[in-house]
Amino acid sequence: MSLDELIATLNDIKKRTDDSVASGIQDVRMKEGSRELAWSSQQALGPGQIVTYQSKFVNKLSEITDEMSISGSLSIKYGGIGGSGSGAFMEAEKFYDSDLNYFVSVKVINQTINFKDASTFAPLRSCMKDQQKFNQTYGDSFVSGFLEGGEFNALVCINFHNESKKRDIQAEAKIAIGAGPVEVSAAGSLKLAEENITNNSETTIYVRWCGGGNIKPYDDEWTLDTVMAAAARFPALVGLFPQRTYAVLTKYETLRSYLMLKPVQISPLRYEVAQMYTNMLLDAYMEYKALTKRISESIGDIQAGLKEIQTDDPTTPVERPNVLVDAKLDFFPKTLQGLDDARRAIRNQMNIIIREVDILTDRPEVASDTTRKQPYIGPVTFKVLVPVVNVRGRRARPNAAPLDMQRINELCDPKTAPVDNSDPDAPPLFNPNATPLRLSADEQAKVHDLEWQSYGIGTSYQVSAPVGDPDMGSSSFCTLDFAQSGEAISDVSLLVDAQGRLSSIALGFNNGLIVSFGKSASQDDLDAVPGERKLLNIDPITERIVSGKIQTFEYKDSEQKMRQRVCGVSLSISDSRKVEYMWKPVSSDLGNVTVQPFGIPTSGLKLAGLWGRMQEDGPDAGLVRLGFIWGSAIVPTSDDPTNPGGQPKHITSLSRSFWPKATETNQVKFPYQLLGVPRLLVAPHHLRSSTKSKDDRMDRLQIGAAASSITAVGFNLDAKTRAPEDGMFVNWLVLPEPESCATNDGEVEVAGVSDGHSVEASITFLRPFPESESLPVVQCWFTSLNVAPKNSPDGTVHIRVRVVPDSCTTKGVRLVVEALDGTRVPENIKVGWLAHTKPPKANADLVSGSLTINDPGNNTSQTLKLDSTLTDKPVSQFVGLNEVRAELKHPISFTTMVMPETTSSELHLNAGPFSPCDMSVLGLTWILAM
User: At the top level of its lineage, which domain of life is listed (predicted)?
Assistant: First the structure.
């Protein structure tokens, strides 16, 4: 090309560019009406960064652990998904129970900090000739620096309520979550999809970050929108507030000094070849852990009558995969025993995986050995053997479009509420066709929530429409929120106000729980209720409350508006065994009084709880609206004629809290017949001393519990308190007999204890523990105690029992009882004790411990991390007293109990005195069992 031709070409290009600028097609200058972008090059301040952002749906835990650089083997050994020493980032069980898991990750690297002085290998003479010592001392790499920046991780777990349309909801969820900017015409559909997901799902969000400081306002909740917004702003915040995030690990082979000094026989471990295999082990282990939790929940639901084991179609042959045949694993029986056996077999598979991790620690090369056989069974294959559990009487939900569902309770008038004509094989919780009474809008919402939370709940529970005023009252109540899965009413007390009207109802359940509804009532108020307004010791198996009456009073308030309240109630087991209180107004001019009778909706039900509205304080305190909740009687069933009740082959743990009468022998019945005579632990754990009368008994602490005539059906319990009016609860525990844990237990009587003089008691184990194993764990507590101050009635008592240090062997142990601070002991003291095998770090069947609380009045809530984690949330719990120090200016009252928040790895206790008791030390012994 000649020079003239080149100049002509350049001029032509310039002309076309000028024409484009002039016509507005190519112009970087802002024009009138244009919007300035929020970002500009002048705002790009801060250090240079390497940012990795990703958001995706995940199905395997290993996808998350890879992104977070979490050690799969460490997660298996410690049973949690962490990433730091601070604890678990998320619950593996929640991950596998969720229908959709959305993971958001942002990694920011500002710079890398290298250590110049770390590039020389420093050999140790004792380690350079021994491969094992070298591995233990040096590992496979060394820290050569650190990455500085930040990391943000969030996991959104979504559970869909409607299983029949789960795939449709998943599709809409993926569109709604993954959608970016959309056209205006599509924005409405996207908003509707997001609202439908909210109506049909439950969302759990886990967030963890380092660096960046405070990445969101304190008062903002974590939602999917705030997660995405925090992830977007995270790199800019890390530029301002970075921190060290990761150590840079470098192989020894990269050091010239190491290659010069390394002996031929020494070779560092190469763990990178085992990483993929370790992730496979992690996925299998966590799936097994989630399966164990589901089986444990299913066992409890079956015993409560909420679920049943699905039977196979005999026309459909089922074959085992070859891998199960080779492992000699067969289908588990379709009974409770089969589920318990499956849970035990899962524990064996989890232990095999843990042993495999130990092998990889010393020999990572086995991960790449193609000839080596996998030692464990995959969880997907194992699930084939486990019996399927469904809701009792389960049928498919109506094939309506759940994503188009309307908001409920748009009709506020209960009289115009629609009548439910649903399938009788899947009965609703409330049947409007059986009564002319109707639910209020709030009550309709409550029923709807309960039915979504526990699909099929109508097969086990039915509610009657409450009567009373639907608009008054400060709060609503419903016992189905906390009393399901086998809890039965054991006591009923009716409290009356100054006008003679029913003010509150107190219910006691067979698990020790006591609740009152209506006007706030203290323990003294409950103690003052006369016997004719009490129905006590209701046998959960042989006695059922089958009918009731509710008396309401209609009157005009100060604004001349018609109001209603509950003023009387009647509950009947039979004509001769019932509790009833009906108000008799002094004048008919006060208002109208009506009585509404109720009975069980269908046969086989009994009174299981109450629901309604109440006013807890003020001049109108009381029950405003009241209804009955009916539940099915708990009768264990089994399809196996050789195993009635479907109970396991060995005795499993069982515990309750019981309110005994101190004036007579109490008969305690187990919820079901055990397989044999159990070993039983008892301990007083709750005391509310009465202040009604003053006599010479007021200056002491006296509690006691003794079990006798123990059979497979129940036992007799004798209790002892300072005065008959004292309220004491006794904790009892049936010791389990798992193969993994050996136990010894008993009670010892100690005489001669006095102030400043401690007495030891020697105990010989009936079944000695193996010499080859670790020493057993021993716990002790008071079962009978009577102590008083030495000089003054208002003095101090201090009594303690403990294990003598270094006295425990595999054949026995010594206990010591100490009376301190001038404490007088007029009677012999009885001490209960338990010795059991030291539990493993994970998947334990029984764990125990002790706790001493100083100044317990200021800190009644206690949380303990378990050194040995259980296989699941504990089935049974037990608490006893091993030390108390208190002044007797006021009678001693205290409580010690395990809270429902307790998990497989964390114990939650509520322990402390009741005011005005002055207690300075409270010592506890606790036991958790599967």
Answer: Eukaryota
